[in-house]
Amino acid sequence: MASTDVTPTRMELIKTKERITLATKGHKLLKQKRDALILEFFKILKKSQDLRGELVKKMGTAYHSVALSQIYHSYYELQNVSLSMKKEITADIEVKNVMGVKIPHLTNEVDPEAFKVSSLYSIGSTSAKIDNAVTQFNEVLELVIKLAETETAIKRLILEIEKTKRRVNALEFILIPRLNEQKRMISFRLDEMERDSFVSLKVIKRRLEKEKAN
Length: 214
Hints:
Blueprint: H1 10-72, H2 75-84, E1 93-98, E2 101-106, H3 128-213
Antiparallel strand pairs: 1-2
């Protein structure tokens, strides 16, 4: 509905038309942003699904390698080796800007030898079976980090898409219709005032003509 506080003047009509033009342009830009975000969302979603599938396969392979190493080493021996391994992971995080959405991007890969720095991890005390298990789980960790990156991107994109959709809907179904109604009411009132003025002028003209005739 149009605001009852709006003064029906030519200047107000011009301002209302300018607001409609601005709101329409904003609506178009927001729709383009929403569509671009949705495209990016599905691209990252596909990447996430691929990573999940790859992770499931890699986890199966990694646990199989652990099972093989248990044939050659006792449970306590494997536990001691695993607990003594270096667990610190360093990675550089960059921020990617996608249509105003800040998405973290991990640039450093995990060092494949990082987990082998241990007094209990050596050629003499371990076997190729343990080496293989360590390598497999190292690859699992890399996939987990990549998956975490895509999952974070998906969550942030969903939030931004929802926010953009609300703005698009507010413009399309609330603000623009209200401004159009306001423009219609101002135009109607101006036309009505012009008709009233025209009628008044006609009446005055007739009176003047009648007085002149007398």
